[in-house]
Design a protein that fits this description.
Number of domains: 1
Strand order of the largest sheet: 4-3-12-11-10-9
Helix content: 10-25%
CATH architecture: 4-Layer Sandwich
Order of helices and strands: EEEHEEHEHEEEEHEHHEHEEH
Largest sheet: 6 strands, mixed
CATH class: Alpha Beta
Shape: globular
Strand content: 25-35%
Distance between the termini: 13 Å
Number of helices: 8
Length: 371
């Protein structure tokens, strides 16, 4: 479901699916691993993890313009140095848990080779893999994400509606001390140069309870003593300081160059702040944006001609900045309202946020539409 179905008010016009897949060519796939219950036995479980895959241009390794921004860098996103240097992204992006980044990266390369993307001109590849930490619910040191799980996420990738909540890379994630995970949202943007789509996908694993804000309402403060996680002390969440992470992937079909995409990534924190995130010291808040408008074919020979590129005029960017903040905010709330209560290692339990309580609180503050 979408948070709007609860009557939550959001600014901006969403696309058909209200998802990053509203940007044509973007595909999303998940592989979710949920196995066993009980006490932690490293290498055996319980397992609460997975992989989420994002293809920018269908199932190809075409290059697109891209940019990265680290709001707080206590995290990992492979391939980021070359994106910063060249302003281009090639192939799928995957998101997983902190200790599975290397395997996921290598598995993307293997999948690409087996699918015939390598040739005499294209002989090396720097895949983008990002992470957040799921070790409160998952046997993260058991290395349960395998090559087959990565391949499954890549093969499952499709357009249309996107599964949200505790699926894929978001399976074991926690957001504002409620169950978190994957969320997505989109915006339709009308400029003087035409109509464009912008979509955001988040893996939300950050935040403390009393900072949670929904539609401008202090929902976390109202629920500060309700449905708190039941977690062993040594594995616990710091209730005073933000110590989680959030990965945000932004896609648009607007003709934007790398410097313009970098400016969009810097507006993602505006949406994060609306929900109550501020990028704590131990938080890995890393954001990537790409445009599908100017594409570079991965199977062609190295081009020698001068590129003819299109670019939106900078005077039209403000409306895209606003859409970035709006879509980020809504994607995080969509992650929260779709996530379900989960019990993980050692019986650690993180509860989903109550839809009824959200509505009650929004009614109290006169900030809801009838559904």
């Amino acid at each position: 479901m979408k948070a709007r179905e609860l009557g939550i008010i959001f600014d901006g016009l969403a696309g058909k699916n209200n998802a990053i897949t509203d940007v044509r060519g973007v595909l999303i796939g998940h592989s979710t691993i949920i196995e066993k219950d009980g006490d932690l036995a490293v290498g055996k479980g319980p397992i609460r993890t997975g992989v989420t895959a994002i293809f920018p241009v269908n199932k190809t390794l075409a290059e697109v313009h891209a940019a990265i921004y680290s709001y707080n860098g206590n995290g990992e996103m492979t391939g980021s140095h070359w994106i910063k240097e060249a302003g281009k992204l090639r192939g799928p992006i995957c998101i997983t848990n902190t200790h599975s980044v290397g395997l996921v990266r290598d598995s993307i390369i293997k999948w690409s080779i087996e699918n015939g993307f390598f040739n005499q001109q294209f002989v090396w590849f720097l895949p983008v893999v990002a992470e957040t930490y799921d070790g409160i619910l998952n046997d993260i040191n058991g290395f349960h994400v395998k090559e087959e799980h990565v391949i499954l996420a890549l093969e499952n990738a499709t357009d249309g509606q996107v599964q949200e909540g505790n699926v894929g890379g978001g399976t074991g994630m926690i957001c504002h001390q409620f169950k978190g995970g994957i969320g997505t949202s989109s915006r339709i943007i009308v400029t003087e140069q035409g109509k464009f789509g912008l979509g955001v996908l988040v893996q939300a694993n950050y935040g403390i309870r009393n900072h949670l804000t929904i539609s401008g309402v202090p929902v976390g403060e109202e629920m500060k003593n309700e449905d708190l996680p039941k977690i062993k002390r040594e594995e616990g969440i710091d209730s005073e300081n933000e110590n989680g992470s959030i990965i945000v992937i932004l896609a648009t079909d607007a003709p934007l160059l790398p410097y313009q995409l970098k400016r969009l990534t810097k507006r993602i924190p505006a949406g994060l702040a609306r929900v109550g995130g501020y990028g704590g010291h131990t938080s890995g808040d890393i954001f990537l944006a790409f445009s599908t408008h100017n594409k570079f074919d991965s199977k062609s020979k190295f081009p020698k001609d001068i590129h003819q590129l299109e670019s939106l005029d900078d005077s039209q960017l403000s409306i895209m900045f606003k859409a970035t903040a709006e879509a980020t905010e809504e994607a995080i709330i969509n992650a929260l309202v779709n996530a379900e209560t989960m019990k993980g290692i050692n019986g650690n339990t993180v509860y989903s946020i109550s839809h009824d309580r959200i509505k009650e609180i929004l009614v109290k503050y006169n900030r809801i539409v009838e559904t």
